[in-house]
Amino acid sequence: MKEPCYFHDHEVILNYSAEFVTSTSQLLDSQVFNEFLDHYLTYLDSHRRDLRAFLYKNTDERKKVKEDLKNVLHVLLLMNMNKVDMPYLQLPETMQDVIEEGYRYWNSLQRFSVLYAQRADSYQTNSFMNVDNQINEVARNFFRTVEAKITGRADNVYRQIQAGTNASLLMQKYAWKCPKEYQELADIDFVHTIMVRTPLIIHTKSNKRTNTFAPSDHNPVLDFKKGDDDWFCFPALVGEVLIFVYFHKDEMSSCVATSGLFQLAREEDCRGRKPDAILFFGNPDGTKDTVYYHDTDNHIWIGKTSASPEIDYFGYTKKSILTLHNLAMMERGWLPIHGAMVNLYLKDGRKKGLMFMGDSGAGKSETIEALSNLASDQIDHQETVFDDMGTIHMDEDGNLWAQGTEIGAFVRLDDLDKGTAYKDLDRSIFFNPDKKNARVVMPAAPYKVVIKNHPIDCFVYANNYDDKRGMHVFANEEEAKNVFIQGKRFALGTTQEKGLSTTFFANPFGPMQEQNICKPLIDKMFAALFEKGIPVGEVYTCLGLPDKGDHGIDKGAQALLDFVINNDK
């Protein structure tokens, strides 16, 4: 990004490397403020016509309105209003409304900043955060000073809101092992450090997924629309997989939210290394593609999610990344599990690893939450391994282990116990909290826990469709595989599906598309599960039943807890 600022829909990106202000007078003369006035006046055209009429009373030209506004503001920064005779100040209460509405409009935008560094050492990192903090102070002081001059008195109640940006990114170029077919990507800056001011609320155009991810017969890099410095790379460590996620600058909010879900790789993780996968997110190619391709020559999985209003939903970011992870892991012989896993640390000193599987809305996270609420007298604490996607793999000695993928959880507010989302309020990112399927990204597990090998003590399918209570343990491998592979659930409308549906292995993010690769892995892992006597069953969550089965999920969680406590495999 070369320009000092970039406005797109309801977002703005400030480029501190191109323009940086240190005072309120510099702010007024900046290109950022000039472009902001354009957008604010456009906003007044349709939202506050009374204020528009006031500003345009003596002219029809926007350029003249902007000049007059800037002149008034410059004067107010230096003088008291009673010493100023200017048309806009003849109605001070209306002028105050113009200022306050402008401040509200600015704060309603998703505001981000970037700073480009040659070398991002600890000094540079601290400096970049100080720079962003300074902008925050300048913007807030500007509003307070102007308002005090108009009203003739200072406030006696101050709210320390974020008047600058919601998040700031330090960018740097990395020298990675770039195949010749991908040379267009070699000079794109990487995200080195992100500072997020939480809690952060993000509003997107869509609030659910409608597309599925499909294999492509050609490499999406051929469709890549580089533009003029329009992209930046978020290097994500997804479990043990390194994925370079290239975000178009229109998708900045998704990039920032990704930092709460996946571990941001460090420069040493990327230097001289070829990624396992590459994703282009928000590619402006005029299609609505959500596709992937296996570059067998370079041994890289390539994904593309094209720019469209439908993909302006963080679920696409998350699932695009996880699909590439799953494809790469299946190639290694690891079985992806769409579900959740926790380690229960019991008060009697034992530890139990519980793994759940089920598609979106099946009740995986809700069952884990119910366990916490029901068994505080028996469970000392829980350790999340993964909240949505994990893997099972076998070591050289034939032992089964589980690993995770995400350091955060992207969960529905509707299905969480009241207050759960607010326990980590100061570390959370909220999506469309005023709409159906409102979501939150919240902390789930440290990266060191995600990539650690965890033993499995019980593996259950989250059944939200059968009108049953409690849980059922499968008697044999075939009975279990039939339920798990069928992948049945009652879809709750959080994706493109509604009602009772089936998805191969409850995982439309790689296994469904590559069943010929996945089926042998299922056979291998399930045979080992039963051979080692690891209980495999299903827990009835009742989320797809009327009134959720009258607290049926609590009964399922209690039955599961009783089983694992009394079962010493």
TrEMBL record:
It comes from the Bacteria. This is Phosphoenolpyruvate carboxykinase (ATP). It comes from Grylomicrobium aquisgranensis.
